[in-house]
What does this fold into?
Amino acid sequence: MRFYFLLIWGVYLILAFYSHVMKTFLVLFLLLFFHEMAHVLCAMLFHVRVSEMILTPFGFYATIDHLDYLPKLKKICILLCGLFMHILYPFVFFLFLKMELISNNYFDYLVRINNSILLFNLLPIYPLDGARIIMTFLELFFSYPFARKMIQIISIMIWIICFYMSSLNMKLLFLFLGVFLFLEIKRNPDDLVEYVYTQRKYLKSLENHV
Amino acid sequence: MRKKEKTPFVNFILFLMFCLLLFLGAKINEKKKWIELPAISTWIPYESWLNDYDRSVSKNIEYHLLTENIYTNGTNTCAVLFDGIVLEVKDDQVTILHDNQVQAVYGHMQEILVKADERILKGQKIGTFEESLTLDFKKDQKVLTYEEVLKL
It folds into this structure.
C-alpha cells in the first residue's frame, strides 16, 4: 500500500500552527484518519487490496482496488465501517470529558464536528460514501454502467446545490470534492468493459463449477 | 540514458525541508509582518454548513461598562464575543485569540469552563463571575476599547 500526501497539506499544517489551531486540526485529522482506516481494515478483512492512501487537508482518500466489482454485501460492509466510526466517536469524546482532558464546551464542539463529518459523508456526491451506497442500491435494479451514470448525474446536481448554499469554508471543501467528481466522470470507460468481462468470467466459473 | 529515480527516503527528506522552510518563513514573517497570512481558524472545515444560518439566534452578547475596564452583562456567566481559540487559562483569567485577530483577556472570573488550545464559538460560555469581570482587548499591539472591537 502506498501512502501519498498532497504538498498543500504541509502548507495547511504551517498555517494551523501559526493560527494556534493545532489541537483542533489534530482532532480533525484523527477523526478522518480512523474513518478511513476502518474502510481499509474492513477491506483487508475481506482480502481486498488497498493500493494507496492520499492525505489531503480535508481528509483521507483510500483507493480500494476493484471496490465496484465486489459482491454487494461486502461492498456495503466496507462502506458502512467508516460511517460506523462516527457513532463510536461521541463515546470516545465522553471518555475524554470524564478524564477531564477536554471541557464541556469542547465536547459539544467535537460532537458537532463529528455529526457534520457524518452528514458530509452521507451526501450523494461521488466519491463520498453516501454516493457509493446509493450506487450499490441502484445496482440491485439496474446494470452497473446505468447505475454509475445515474449516480454521476445525481452527484453533479447535489454538488451544485450544496456549493451554492454552503458557507465559504465549506465551498472550499466542495471545490476540492468537485475535482474528484470531475476525475471520476472523466474516468476511462474501458473500466466498464473490464467490469463486464470480469463479471462474465466469474459467472462462467460458477456455471462450470455446477 | 536511464533517468535516476529518487528513493522515497529522499522525497520524505525533501518534504521535511520544505515544511521547515515554510515554518521559518512564517516565523520571520510574524516578526517582520511582510505578508498578512490568513488565520486558518476562520477556515476550519465542517464547522458550519450554511452561511452562519446554524449559528442560530443572533446570540447578542452585550457588556456594559461600569468603570475603566470592568464590565457586567446582567448575568454571572461570561460568553465570548466572537469565535476564537483559547490561548491561555490562568488563575482567574482567560486569554482568547478571536478569528478577527483581536486578543481578548476575560479576567476576574470565578470559575473557568474551558481549557487551553480549545476552539470556542461566539456566544459560548467560558466561565462565571461574581458581580463583574474585566475585559481587555488588543490587536496588532494596539489597545482597543469594547466599542472599537464591536465595530470590527
User: Anything to note?
Assistant: The domain at 58-151 of chain B is CATH 2.70.70.10 (Glucose Permease (Domain IIA)). The longest strand of chain B covers residues 133-139. The interface with chain A takes residues 15, 18-19, 22-23, 26, 30, 37-52, 85, 87, 97, 113-115, 117-121, 124-126 of chain B (CB under 8 Å).
